[in-house]
Amino acid sequence: MASSRATGRQRPSALSDGGAIERHKRAAAQAAAEIVEDGMRVGLGSGSTVSYLLEALGERNLQEVSCAATSPATERIARTLGLKVRELDELGELDLAIDGADQIDPTGWLVKGGGGAQTREKIVAVAARRFVVIASAEKAVRALAPPVPLELMSFGVKGTLRRLAHARLRPQPSAASVSTTGSASVSAAGSDTGSLDRWLQSPDGGLIADYLGPVGDPRELSARLSAVPGVIEHGLFAPEMVSLILIAGEDGVERRRGEKP
User: Fold this and answer.
1) How far is CA 110 from the centre of its chain?
2) Residues 258, 2: contact at Cβ < 8 Å?
3) Does residue 222 lie in a domain region?
4) Can you tell me the mean pLDDT for 179-200?
5) Is residue 88 in some structural domain?
6) Hey, CA dihedral for 34, 39, 45, 48, is it positive or negative?
7) pLDDT given at position 190
8) How far apart are CA 15 and CA 137, in angstroms?
9) Domain count, the chain
10) Same domain flag for 39 and 76
11) Which SS3 state, helix, strand or coil, does residue 137 take?
12) Residue 191 and residue 80 in one domain
């Protein structure tokens, strides 16, 4: 993966400034919005940086852009801003997809899915001819680290968690913040379907969990997680899925070319 400028980290004081981070998110989102052309079919990701993208697209008043949303929240905001939202299956191949990231390593591997929509986000990313990632500078890391979001089937989730070993279900925001790992997580899940209601679910009903073990080689971990029965999808995105990464910081917007044309 090539970069248009040096990839040095931003000053810690800037990265710890919440106001600066929000400005950087907005700058990355605005840069991505300028790529969108009228008549395009566009995939819209999820999260706080994407919310700035939606605002920027709404301000451009593009009348012939059709969008596919990766989450109910994105769809709701997009419609409120006057964007045309359709089902992905109606649109078919997308011209462009734009989404945020939780972590970006120097080789272009991503961790995504902090909001629990990683399966939809990955489906939309691969449905697009170009996939653009937008982020503020603190999301650029030297090496990926846990947690890595997972979506699991509720059927047999006890066994799935045992096979994953270093994983825990993610509680609903209203649930107790105390969480457990390994066999204790399995016990907490309970044996009846009703007890699963305390755990966060994806837009499609899968259980959201986090892998908390070492990441090491992201490609090796990606293959290992995908091979566990009961894992619907994980939040590791490979460099070959990404066309362009826009990382905004104090010195402007850095453009890193991905491996996808």
Assistant:
1) 8
2) no
3) no
4) 51
5) yes
6) positive
7) 39
8) 7
9) 2
10) yes
11) helix
12) no
* Dist CA 28 CA 40 (whole Å): 20
pLDDT above 60 (res 143): yes
Annotated catalytic residue within 22, 64, 121, 220:
121
Judge whether 121 counts as a catalytic residue: yes
- DSSP per-residue string spanning 55-106: HHHHHHT-TT-EEEESSHHHHHHHHHTT-EE--HHHH-SEEEEEE--SEE-T
The yes-or-no verdict on residue 120 having pLDDT over 80 is yes
229: how many CB neighbours lie within 10 A of its CB?
Answer: 9
The span from the CA of 243 to the CA of 238, in Å, is 11
Q: How far apart are CA 70 and CA 152, in angstroms?
A: 18
Same domain, residue pair 188 and 116: no
Task: Establish if 59 belongs to a structural domain.
Answer: yes
Claim to verify: residue 115 and residue 175 sit in the same structural domain: no
Do 62 and 143 contact (CB within 8 A), yes or no? no
- Helix, strand, or coil here: 122? helix
Long-range contacts for 191-196 (Cβ within 8 Å, ≥24 apart)?
A: 191/158, 193/154, 196/154, 196/157
- Please, which pLDDT band fits residue 173 given cuts at 50, 70 and 90? confident
What range defines the domain where residue 83 resides?
12-139+237-257
Distance CA 93, CA 89 (A): 9
